[in-house]
Request: fold
Amino acid sequence: MPLIQARQIAKERGVDMVQIAQTPTEAVVKLIELGKFKYQQGKKEQKEKSHEKKTGSKIIRVGYLSQQHDLETKAKQADKFMADGYQVEISMMLRGRQKAHQDIAVKKLHSFLPLLATKHKVIRENKTPRGFIISISRA
Reply:
């Protein structure tokens, strides 16, 4: 179909012509409503963006004096974070005389890991001057 005839049809229908492909002999165009097309493209991009895997990490702080119920509550929150695709860092900061009992702190931090419902893998364990950090992600 000649380009002039395509323009005439587009004008009659009140739609726009969008060039899809260009060949040496002819141009391939599509008759669409440009505003509607842009709206649909925006929605499509937004939907694709929402399905992307989230990156980054979330930090959960476990106290030296935290009791079992506190650990269970924080484990549930860590499970939610990992289900959303985040990497989770479990940190325990030690203050004052707590630093003298680092072995108890490590045991408490490692007792937190079995409370997690989701399968996980330990990425790294760090000992800092202020305490301990364990990074985990979904296995």
In short: Helices lie at 3-13, 34-50, 68-83, 102-112. Residues 57-138 form a domain with the Translation Initiation Factor IF3 fold (CATH 3.30.110.10).
